[in-house]
Design brief:
The protein contains 13 helices and 12 strands. Strands 2-1-3-4-5-11 form a 6-stranded parallel beta sheet, sandwiched between helices. The longest helix is centred in the N-terminal third of the chain and has 17 residues. 45% of the residues lie in helices and 15% in strands. Helix 8 packs parallel to helix 9 and helix 10 packs across helix 11. By secondary structure, it is α/β, with parallel strands linked by helices. The C terminus is likely disordered.
Length: 352
């Protein structure tokens, strides 16, 4: 099999230069890198990860740990991470740390401690104090997608801003009875839901609507949003004309519930979410768009910078979500406003 020596000979460079060009370590000019890559492609040479590791002291591997693999946000973040790693010729080790699972305990207590990677990206883990200590103690750079305090660099959207912007959009349309769907107060709030609820509260207070603040608890899932909306819309004594959902899945669940109850969206109920989920356009959902894939890409760039300079400062990148207006929100109907003031919307009973 042709090796690095043959690549170097064809490119007209030394073996060490060829190794640096293919391994992405050290400075090599763009012209030299192109010649080396062309020579390697010509003979079908692929550098051994083990050889690169021996030469650089790096594993050429990045660890990624996340609680869910089958949810839209996490899958999108993972795709963004993988895109950059493939571009850089780096490997990926994925850890599926489902909440409250035996596997999660083994991951934090054993697998991560083995440090078979140059750095770690933790996605939406909401680690407790003990787990966060374990992440930091592995002795490798760590970047979080969705923040976990000041112990790591972090990439996320500005959740407070997103919820404020969503609520302000509804207020500008004339809505005053606006409920927030999502998050549960009888247990530790997910930090994202807590910040989004805080943004909603702040917008309502700023508009002089503090007395109308209403939180309807739900799991942050489509069924959770469905159940919360059924509860909200069945309450004719305290009706709302609009809802801010903690995420698009909750918002879509609310739209489905409204349809089954015979409540017209947006004529009788405006619904806004946060995410721009892949199903958002299908349901004509107005939403605050975040880009999980871009967050994944940025996380890799931050991590590689920390690997190159372990003593460098930690970074916090907070992206602004962008309002995407579709047809699930509209100016409040005068009849709906009057009905709300007079004691409730005309909503048929829900029978399943």
């Amino acid at each position: 099999m042709s090796g690095i020596a043959e690549v170097a000979r064809r490119a007209g460079v030394s073996k060490s230069t060829a190794s640096r060009a293919l391994g992405g370590t050290g400075y090599v000019s763009d012209d030299t890198r192109s010649r080396v890559e062309a020579a390697a492609a010509e003979i079908g040479y692929v550098p051994s990860t083990n050889a690169v590791s021996l030469a650089t002291g790096k594993t050429q591997n990045i660890g990624v740990v996340m609680p869910y693999l089958n949810r839209w946000f996490f899958a999108e973040v993972l795709e963004g991470i993988q895109e950059v790693l493939l571009e850089r010729g780096l490997d990926l080790t994925l850890y599926d740390a489902k909440p409250a699972s035996p596997g999660r305990a083994r991951i934090f207590g054993d697998y991560l401690a083995r440090s078979r990677f140059d750095g770690l990206i933790a996605v939406g883990l909401e680690p407790d104090h003990h787990e966060l200590e374990q992440l930091v103690k592995i002795g490798r750079p760590v970047v979080s997608v969705v923040g976990s305090g000041d112990a790591t660099s972090v990439v996320e959207i500005d959740d407070d801003y997103a919820a404020r912007r969503a609520t302000d959009h509804l207020i500008a349309l004339g809505h005053r009875r606006i409920a927030f769907l999502g998050g549960q107060t009888d247990r530790h709030w997910a930090q994202v839901d807590r910040r989004r609820f805080g943004g909603y509260q702040a917008a309502m207070m700023d508009a002089g609507l503090g007395d109308a603040i209403r939180h309807i608890e739900s799991d942050v899932t489509l069924p959770g949003g469905y159940a919360a909306a059924v509860d909200a819309l069945s309450d004719t004594h305290n009706p709302c004309t609009a809802v801010v959902a903690s995420c698009d899945e909750v918002a879509i669940g609310a739209i489905i519930a409204a349809r089954r109850l015979g409540v017209q969206v947006p004529a009788q109920l405006s619904v806004i979410g946060i995410d721009d989920h892949e199903y958002a356009e299908m349901f004509s959902l107005t939403t605050l768009q975040q880009s999980p894939r871009e967050q994944g890409r940025v996380a890799v760039e931050l991590l590689l910078a920390q690997i190159a300079d372990p003593d460098g400062p930690r970074s916090a990148v907070r992206m602004k979500a962008r309002l995407i207006v579709r047809s699930s929100t509209a100016a409040i109907d005068a009849r709906a406003s009057t009905a709300a003031t007079d004691g409730g919307l005309d909503i048929p009973s829900f029978t399943g």
